[in-house]
Amino acid sequence: MTTLKVGIASYEDMKTRTMAVARGEQRIAPDEPKVWFTSTESFAKVLSAGNRDLLRVIVEQAPGSLDELARITGKAKSNLSRTLKTMAGYGLVRLERGERGRITPKVTHDRVELDLPLSWSRKAG
Q1: pLDDT tier at 124 (50, 70, 90 boundaries)?
Q2: For 99, which DSSP code?
């Protein structure tokens, strides 16, 4: 598997950066984060100890459906679905639709690397 590099940036900073890239004024470096969180709190919530345990169960048990994952973990399917959709939005899991519409969660990375600058240099403008 691979390492997912994530960063922290405000919504406005992400929007400004995305627009600069779209206009060709800025390039995305290969070592830059591919996924962005708006705060360290949102990062911590998505990758809480409980959610990391859930990812571990998915890797180790390879459940064939959300129903099976619910049985393994003892968690409600609706809660798992919501959590996994959030994780999928950040690229942590992939939700594959299988036979009879079953959704199977797959972990896409084995590591997450956080790029967190402790100071920011803002351009005047």
Answers
A1: very low
A2: G
Cβ neighbours of 82 (radius 10 Å): 11
Res 123 pLDDT > 60: no
Dihedral angle of Cα 111, 80, 14, 18, to the nearest 10 degrees: 90
pLDDT tens readout for residues 6-61:
999 888 988 998 899 999 998 988 888 989 999 999 999 999 999 999 999 999 99
In CATH, the number for domain 3-115 is 1.10.10.10
> Could you tell me which residues are beta bridge partners of residue 3?
111
Give the span between the Cα atoms of 64 and 88, in whole angstroms: 17
Q: In the chain, what are the domain boundaries?
A: 3-115
Cβ-count burial of 124 within 10 angstroms (0-12 exposed, 13-18 middle, 19+ buried)?
exposed
Contacts (Cβ under 8 Å, ≥6 apart) of 103: 65, 66, 81, 95, 96, 97
Mean pLDDT, all residues of the chain: 90
